[in-house]
Design goal:
This protein is mainly alpha-helical and about 70 residues long. It contains four helices and no strands. It has a domain at about 1-35. The radius of gyration is 22 Å and the shape is elongated.
C-alpha cells in the first residue's frame, strides 16, 4: 500500500497551486497530479536499481583508521 504524503500534497495544493481548501479536497489524486505538473528530479530507486548499486559498490569490512588499534 502506498500512503499519501499529505504534508507534501497540501503544500503543493494550497501553497504552490494556491487552491482554496474546498477546491483542494474536491480534486481527485489524478487531477492534483496533472495540475502539479511533472515530478522534478530523478525517479525513485527501485529494488533492481538498489541491487545494481549494491553490486557496483559493495560494503567493505571496516579497516582501522591510521593510529587506531584493533584492541
Amino acid at each position: 500500500m502506498n500512503a499519501f504524503d499529505w504534508p507534501v500534497l497540501l503544500q503543493v495544493g494550497l501553497g504552490r497551486l494556491r487552491l482554496t481548501p474546498d477546491r483542494f479536497w474536491a480534486l481527485t489524486p489524478v487531477e492534483l497530479r496533472l495540475m502539479a505538473g511533472p515530478a522534478k528530479g530523478p525517479p525513485a530507486l527501485g529494488r533492481s536499481g538498489l541491487a545494481a548499486l549494491m553490486k557496483s559498490f559493495p560494503d567493505l569490512p571496516e579497516q582501522p583508521r591510521k593510529g587506531e588499534t584493533d584492541e
